[in-house]
Design goal:
The chain is α/β, with parallel strands linked by helices. It folds into two domains: about 170 residues, Rossmann fold (3-Layer(aba) Sandwich); about 40 residues. The protein contains seven helices and six strands. Strands 2-3-1-4-5-6 form a six-stranded mixed β-sheet, with helices on both faces. The longest helix is centred in the middle third of the chain and has 24 residues. The relative contact order is 0.17.
Amino acid sequence: MGLLGLIRKFKNQPGKEFRILLLGLDNAGKTTILKNLASEDIRHITPTQGFNIKSVVSDDVKLNVWDIGGQRKIRPYWKNYFENTDVLIYVIDSCDRKRFDETGMVKKLMVLTAQNIRSAAVFSGDIGALKLLLVIKNYALKDRFERELFELLDEEKLKNVPLLVYANKQDLVTAAKANEIAEGLQLLSIRDRSWQIQACSAVTGEGIKDGMDWISKNLRKQQKSK
């Protein structure tokens, strides 16, 4: 299912407009996924320096997909695009293990250390130990993938917005599995919205349709609840 197939699911709602926000760090494959969904040529992709927008209209139903660049200098401007988002897609480079494997190992160490400090602090009433516990907790969340993602989920304008995580580049042998990424990013801790992690390859198209099927189901749920 591409973008056109998605909005055709809502042909009985003329005048309806949907907005999907496509985010992720640089080199994750966001633009390639968007071009794949739009059935466009993906052989020549350049990094997005600002934003791309794809608009599709069918039977008076409109879908806008905003693809925002993921470079560090651009990320502070992501917040300018949060308004009226119906679904958030976050794309991850499954081969860039430095951005989530290290977090998993650091976090396990931090959890063990924090447990020891918490026990000591509760036993002794040591305020200094409690403050150190807070520092450790914050440090454990410093990883780039996780930090950027969870900061997004804390945004008021994205409150309760369904989240689809595309674990991209699964066609490469070095790619981490979707369940590894979910564990490393602590996705199971998300309780305030519907979410799904979908293994995919923007190059081969594998898994892209499954993600769009999930989006379609969640958009229908949203419409029924309104």
